[in-house]
Design a protein that fits this description.
By secondary structure, the chain is an alpha/beta fold. The chain is built from 13 helices and twelve strands.
Length: 335
Amino acid sequence: MPLKVLVTGPIADLAAKKLSAFAVVDFYRNEKKLEGQEFTRRLSGCDAVVCQLSGPVTKETIDHNPSLKLIANVAVGYDNIDVEHATKKNILVLNTPGVLDDATADIAFALLISTARRIVEADKFLRAGKWKGFRLDLMLGSDLRDKTVGIIGFGRIGQAFARRCLGFGMKVLYTQRNRSEHEAELKAKYVSLDELLRSSDFVSIHCPLTKETKHLINDDTLSLVKPDCILVNTSRGPVVDSNALITALKRGKLRGAGLDVYENEPEVPKQLIEMDNVVLLPHIGSATEKTRLKMSELAVDGLIAAFSGNMPHNIVNKSVWDAFEKRIGTLTATK
C-alpha cells in the first residue's frame, strides 16, 4: 500500500515536492488551525503527519488514528505533541534541532537590544511627529557593555545567544539542569536560578517547555530580579506566567520585556500591547527563508529516511525505533 501523509500547514516548496514524490500527501492549506475533530478526520488512515506548533497532537488524536506511525514536527520544541503517549503507541516523533539556532538567537538579541535601547518606542515617537530635535535626556536606555546577562537554558540556542552577548562585552551567567561542557569556551558561569535572577541585568529564556518549566517565571521568581532588569523570552510562552509578568512591569519591578512567544498564542494580553516598554513579535524566532527551508527539509528528510528503514538523527524518542521498524514492515512509499 502507498504511504499516506498529512501535512497540517505550509512547508517549503522544495520539501513539499520531495515528500510528494515519496508518498501520497494531503496538504492542509487553510489558514485556520487544524485541530480537534477536523484534524482527527483528516489524519484518518495516514501513516504519518508533518505538523507545526499550531497543531496539537493529543492523546485523543493518537488514539483515534491507529494507523499513525510517525509524527514529524517542523520545530525544535515538541510541547504540542503528547510524546509520552506516542512512545507508548510506538509512534516515532521527529523534530528539527540545530537548523534554527542562529536565527532564534538573533531574534532574542534583537529583542534585548530593542528593549534596552527603546528602539520601538523611539520609532513610534518619531512617526507620531513628537520629535522636536536633539535633547540630552531623550529616550535614555540601558547600556549593554559590562552588564550581566542571565541565560535560562544553555542548549544550542542559549549558547548561540551567549556568543552574541560576548561580542557586546557582556558577562554571562547560565542555569539549567546540568552544567555545560561549553562553559569555558563561552566564559559562562553556572549558577542557580535564584542567583541568576538576583545578579542579572538582562534575563533571556531558552529552555524547553516541560511540566517543570511551566510558569518557571512567576510572582516568586520575579520578586528576585534586580531593579531595571529586562526579560526576553523566545522559548515558549507558558514558561512565563503572563499575569505575573504584567504585574512586575506595571510595578516597575522589570524595566521592560521583549517577547516572541505568549502563554495563549496567538492571543496577546491587551495590557502588554498597551505598554511602551514591551517589544512584541509574532513568534518569528526562526523566520528566515533559509532557516524555514532547512526546518521543512529536515522534517521531510527524517520522515523519508525512517520509512526507508534508516534511522534519522532527529528522533525525539529513539527507544521506539525497533518497534517502529516492525510496524512499517513491508509498507512501501510508492504511489
